[in-house]
Amino acid sequence: MKEFWPSVLLTFPVTVYVGAVVLGSVPSSDPAFTGTFVVMLILAILSTLPFEPIHLGATAGLLGFSFAVLALLYLLPATGVEVLAGSLLAVPALLVSYAVRPGPLGWRLMAFAVALTEGLALLATDVAMTSAQATFAGGEFIREFGSLNVTQVEGLGGLLASSGGSLPLRDVFDPVYVVLAGIAVAGILIPVLRPQTAWDEPLPTAAAPPVTRERTTREVDLGAAFAAVLEERSSPEPASGVIPPGLPPLLVGSAAAGLVVAVAFLTPGLTLPLLVAGIVVALAATIALVRRPLAARR
Amino acid sequence: MRSYPLLAPRGWGALAGGFGTLLVGFYAVNLLLLVVGTTLTVFVLAELLRFSLTTQGFGPEGFVYTRYQNSAEVTVGDVGSMGVRLEYRGRWPFFAEIFDSHPDSLEILEGSARLVTWWSPGAEKRLVYAFRALRRGALQLGPTVVVAHDPFGFAFRVCTVENPWTVEAMLEVPLVKTGPSAFEQNRPIEGAVNLPIRGMGTEFRSLRDHQPSDDIRTVAWKRSTMGRLYVREFERETPQEVVLLVDTGRRMGAGELGSTALDRAIETAALVVRYALLRMDRVGLLLYSDGPALFVRAGRGSDLAAAIRRGLTEAAPGPGTFDAAGAFSFLAAELTGPTHLLVFAAPGVWRERDSEAYRQLTKPGHRVYFFFPDLPGMYAELGDDTSRRVAALVDGPENARLGHVVRAVEGLSAPVFVYNREGPTEAVAELPVRSRAFWRIP
């Protein structure tokens, strides 16, 4: 609960920023596009609230009201596509709302990465439409978003076939988006990167002993030593003067990221091969690390 | 035993998330996403590698451990204590979770059997706790489990420090649920008893058919007729011999945890033992299922009381089923003087050979009292009608089985009592009144 609000405050601005950039190009005479995005954003934020029984009724009411507004917007003549476009714009917010909720870490990180990618694609769509001076209607926006992704896939195929091609997502660089995305990464990882115990691994339980055995001592009364030990329980914190746990891998991870950035700036052509090689090594290391545990599991 | 690093679900998730982010980064071919994915993946892998290397050799040989302040025997409901001292002799510090495994029937009152702590080489950690035994039995504490985990919960290693300790949770005085028990109401019970002992005692009790082994001086000539001789029986004024036969077969395990048919039988048996010893009677115990598990010959004294107490404490339902004929034959060979035999058993069937063995056992004058658990009655009433109807379908065959056994034993003119989850204590206490054959009430 303590890290809930920091997570929400750190992660949602990036999605709000993407929405604001795109909606800035949408004509003010088209409220369905904007309205849908706002409603969906509210829904996404509401869905992250840690539900308490006392607040459940109020939250359910808000959600019901939001859905009713969406249904009305959709039913209005000529606004169905606008509602779909607004929903598309709000998908990153919905994915981020999943990423900040408690759940399997892998899925949450994946949802967050997909949210950042789609945010990037939305920004690219906005840039493409603005440069082409296209009309910012819902249908046009969705069509452009789709064709941009098709172009990206074709470009990747061309890259693999060494025939070249356009990569519209690669060319987007918005410094504000980068900063906000970095902050959002922190919002996701801060609650994760703290000492955890292996609570989820079941510990063995005591088994019934055989019936006959010899005892060696008798009961000892609880003495002063007993109380003294209870008073000086061990601290769960590392002793002062030791390297903070987790710092070395954090440094290694940062160094690797720095290396990727450096290679990308110095010799951009080597970045992808380097990453592919790195992934192969990482996969091999992972297999080596998890091979024994799989064999050791009962 | 060497431990292996295990990936926790969190570790799997972090790895999957890192690789997934990298894949998404490849799709976008965008530096931002590639950097995020690279950082995450390398971070997780570096942490796993560090943990794997620094905890290499993690195992029980890296610890020095002792138990102290430990109770060996406690009475059910009373408090005992336990202390575990562990010193870590490894090279690298780690986050540790230490857990002294213990059964559920042991309630921790003070302190904790679990500790999460940062553990430096050479440091000593102690688990100290006070506990209360909730149920009878031999409770095993330990082994102590040490879990080393990385600071982020990605991976861990487990080793068990084999330092088991057994606490005997003994029954002192069984609890009688409400009000003074029939035992209490009937006190004081005088020493006069009524088992017929040939040639002993002065108080006439009854006549019975002559047996070939009877002393000719006990024949009641005036009452005897041609072809049928009677002998006089006298009550003995000396202390009696009581033997408890407790079935430890699997059927006695019926009932809820801590209040099974066997638990209830043992509570009553413990009460009988205590009472018999107070009266200076001789008391013995036979635990039997498909064979003898423990036999304590009837006697007196603190050693005998301790042996019976231990036997009752450690009695647990085994896999076998009660063999009444075998138990009676065993006792027929072991019992010497006339004995009151209290049988707490749940035989599934009663065969002719059981009856035959019973007749052989009672021929020398032993008296046998049967206490059969009503196995469906060992469970609490179900809440709703549907459940009750379903349970009735299941209980039907068991009730028929019990009815068959009870009728068969009653056909032998033996006193039979059926007990439910309340236990047979009251039935045993009423024995003098109902059977007029056990301890006589003034």
List keywords for this structure.
heterodimer; A: 298 residues; mainly alpha; 2 domains; 68% helix; flat; disordered C terminus; B: 442 residues; alpha+beta; Immunoglobulin-like; Rossmann fold; 6-stranded mixed β-sheet; 5-stranded antiparallel β-sheet; 31% helix; elongated
Word description of this protein:
Chain A is flat. Chain A contains ten helices and no strands. Chain A has 298 residues and is mainly α. In chain A, helix 1 (4-23) packs parallel to helix 5 and helix 2 (31-47) runs antiparallel to helix 3. Chain A folds into two domains: 4-189, no CATH class; 250-298, no CATH class. Chain B has 442 residues and is α+β, with helices and mostly antiparallel strands. Chain B has four domains: 6-54; 60-170, Immunoglobulin-like; 182-195 and 237-435, Rossmann fold (3-Layer(aba) Sandwich), CATH 3.40.50; 203-235, no CATH class. Helices cover 31% and strands 29% of the residues of chain B. In chain B, the strands form six sheets. Chain B has a six-stranded mixed sheet with strand order 19-18-15-20-21-22, with helices on both faces. A five-stranded antiparallel sheet of chain B has the order 1-11-10-5-7. Chain B is elongated and about 120 Å long. The model of chain B is unreliable at 173-199 and 433-442 (pLDDT under 50). The chains are: A mainly alpha (298), B alpha+beta (442). At the A-B interface, helix 5, helix 6, helix 7, helix 8 and helix 9 of A face strand 1, helix 1, helix 2, strand 4 and strand 5 of B.
Question: Would you summarize the structure shown here?
Answer:
The complex is a heterodimer of chains A (298) and B (442). Chain A is built from 10 helices and no strands.
